Every structure is written in structure tokens, then in C-alpha cells.
Amino acid sequence: MPDALTLPEPRTPDPADAPPLRWGVLAPGHIAHQWTTAVLAHTRQEVVAAGSRSLDRAQAFADAHGIARAHGSYEELVDDPHVDAVYVASPHSHHHDQALLALRAGKHVLVEKAFTRNAAEARALVEAARDADVLLMEAMWTRYLPHTDVIRQLLDDGALGDVHRVVGDYGVRTDPDPTHRLLDPALAGGVLLDLGIYPLSFASFVARHAGLGLSPRTVQAAGSLTSTGVDAQISVQVGYDGAEAQLFTSMLTASGHTTHVHGSEGRLDVDDRCYVPAGVTLTVGDRTGTWDANRITGYGGLSFQAAALATYVAEGRRDSPLLPLDETVAILETADEIRHQVGVVYPGE
Ligand SMILES: NC(=O)c1ccc[n+]([C@@H]2O[C@H](COP(=O)([O-])OP(=O)(O)OC[C@H]3O[C@@H](n4cnc5c(N)ncnc54)[C@H](OP(=O)(O)O)[C@@H]3O)[C@@H](O)[C@H]2O)c1
């Protein structure tokens, strides 16, 4: 029996060590509840205000989480002098306008994935953040998780040899109410921006750390649309020099959460739930090794990105080293091309 491989330990700081910032939550829906619960449980961040289109909903959210201040409009939230950073957790269609509101009020901003509807909106936010001299970050939480840092080190160290293939799949059978944001073109619904953005971002992460570049050379997509005209399922192949990523996403079938990276010397497999805190297995020849020591699990992992933002602010950074804004923009350029090929256009684009 060959010796087991030892994987590197993640360098991810404990989220409780990040210096506290005063946060305001903009749009208190499903993920805002999860994020606030995680941040209050695992960090020293202070969630000081909630803002909703309705004062009643803001107050109910504030009461549920012990938050001192509730605002009945997003404008009031971003103008609150007690707030240093705003977490934007609205539907994709509104990320640009609401993040812009917060940036122009001089706040640091964490924007839920997908960052914006398209690359043009993302570029406009990047420019606004530069003008305001504040930190703007995409809340692609997987980038900030410990297992992602294990993968980052393996890629940076060339543990797989030359990377030739990435396979990623995120399919969840969902049968939402016809009025749900997922099905609504006006809210930039569709599975690509909701779930497909995870494998797309993962492929970009691998490409960056494997030296394959910021943007793929080719994009070939196929997909099925819902009766409302958004994407229900997408298969895409993105090509780099000497490497391809095959990526799948679906709201029609529970295809699983599959993530594999194949190189000339070895293979890396991430656990089934690869976008939340997960385990990683490396195989090189007949030797394997696994890292799977997550102390914070499930949605608790949302705390890492908030802690990262607070640390970067304290360090005076204006871009995330783990997911720089030029990469966020490049990922959305690929998403734009995929939507173009499958025929999804949002109203007003
Ligand atoms: N990181 C993750 O694991 C994860 C998981 C799920 C979702 N997300 C992301 O989080 C964002 C929000 O998703 P969600 O599932 O939390 O959505 P949700 O439950 O529908 O909440 C969205 C909130 O946005 C506000 N909003 C503002 N304008 C709106 C409009 N025109 N229509 C509907 N709501 C509007 C609403 O709050 P008020 O009206 O009270 O202001 C609503 O509660 C999306 O970007 C999504 O991709 C991330």
C-alpha cells in the first residue's frame, strides 16, 4: 500500500481574527439571513443596520438578528453614518444600481454573486469604486473558503503537472413559483447567473493559478430555456491553450455538484458539495491524499468573505487578492457570451 499524500494546510485566517467593520445589509431576503447568521456566529463583524424597500421587512430582519437600526429604503441605509460597509443581497438585476448607490455614499461594498447582469455593468462598478476610493468585492464565497486555499496551493505548486481539463457541474432540480426571481428575466433570472456562475468562476480560478490566463480563447455553449425565456440548463466548453473546461448547470435535474481538475501528473477531486466548505482529494499515480478538516461548515462559510473584506479594508486594499475585479469582469464576459449563444437577453440590456 503506497504512502498517503499529505495535502497543504489552508492558510485561510480564522474569520474571528478579522478586525471589526460596521456592516449594513441591503435587501433582507433568503441569503441575507444566512449571511448575517454566519457573520454574527463566526466573526467580530458588527451588523449595525438593515435596509429594505419596506420598513416593516427591515425591522423584522433587524429584530430577528438583534440589529440596532432598520431603514425603509436603500438610500437611507447607504447614507447611515454608522455603516462602513454594505452587503448587497438583492436579485442580480439590481446589483449594479444598488452597489452604485452604496459606492457613491462612500461605503465599501460586498456584492452577492452573480456580481452584475453583465460585464458592462461590472466595469461601471469597478470605475465607481476607483472614483470613490473604496473596496468593492464580489461575494463569490467559495474563493474565500479553506478548501479553496488547499487547491490554490496545489495549483501554484504545480502538484497536478500541466492542467488540461476542468469538469464542473452544479445542477439542482428546482420547481420555483412562476413569479420567483429565478424564472423572471426582469430580475436577471436563469440558472447561469444563479448556479452556473460557480463552476464558471471555479474554472477561471483554476485557469489563473495554472497559468492558463484570465480569459478563455473559445466558448461553446448549448442550453434549454424556460417558458419565461431564461436559461433552465446550460452545457459549455471553454477552451484555453492546451486545456478545456466542461461546465454544466441545470435547474431541471439534480445533477450533483461535481468538480474535478485533471493534470499531466495528477488529479484533484472536490467533494460533492464543492461550493460550500468541502474536502479535497489529490491523486498522483497510485498515491492519494485528502484534506477535509473544515471547522466551519455549510452556510457558516459565508463568514470568510466578510472577514476577508474587513481585513483588506484594514490593510488599505482596494481589490481582493483572491478574486480581483478584473477576473470578476472576465468571468462575466464569458457569461455574456454564453447567454448570447443560448439566446437569453434581459430586458433593458
Ligand atoms: N451565496 C449563496 O450561497 C447564495 C445563495 C442564494 C442566493 N444568493 C444570491 O443572493 C442574491 C439574492 O438571492 P436570494 O435568494 O436571497 O433572493 P430573495 O430571497 O428573493 O431576496 C432578495 C431580496 O431583494 C430585495 N429586492 C429588491 N428589489 C427586488 C425586486 N425587484 N424583486 C424582488 N426582490 C427585490 C427584497 O428585499 P426587500 O424588498 O425587503 O428590500 C428581497 O428580499 C442573488 O444574487 C443570489 O444569486 C447567493
Please give a handful of descriptors for the protein shown.
9 helices, binds NADP nicotinamide-adenine-dinucleotide phosphate, 349 residues, alpha/beta, Dihydrodipicolinate Reductase, domain 2
Descriptive account of the structure:
By secondary structure, the protein is α/β, with parallel strands linked by helices. The chain folds into 2 domains: 15-142, Rossmann fold (3-Layer(aba) Sandwich); 146-295 and 321-342, Dihydrodipicolinate Reductase, domain 2 (2-Layer Sandwich), CATH 3.30.360. 34% of the residues lie in helices and 24% in strands. The protein has an 8-stranded mixed sheet, with helices on one face. Strands 3-2-1-4-5-6 form a 6-stranded parallel sheet, sandwiched between helices. The longest helix has 19 residues, at 191-209. The radius of gyration is 20 Å and the shape is globular. The model has no long low-confidence stretch (mean pLDDT 97). The structure holds NADP nicotinamide-adenine-dinucleotide phosphate (NAP). NADP nicotinamide-adenine-dinucleotide phosphate binds at residues 27-31, 52-54, 57, 89-92, 94, 112-113, 141, 181, 187, 194.
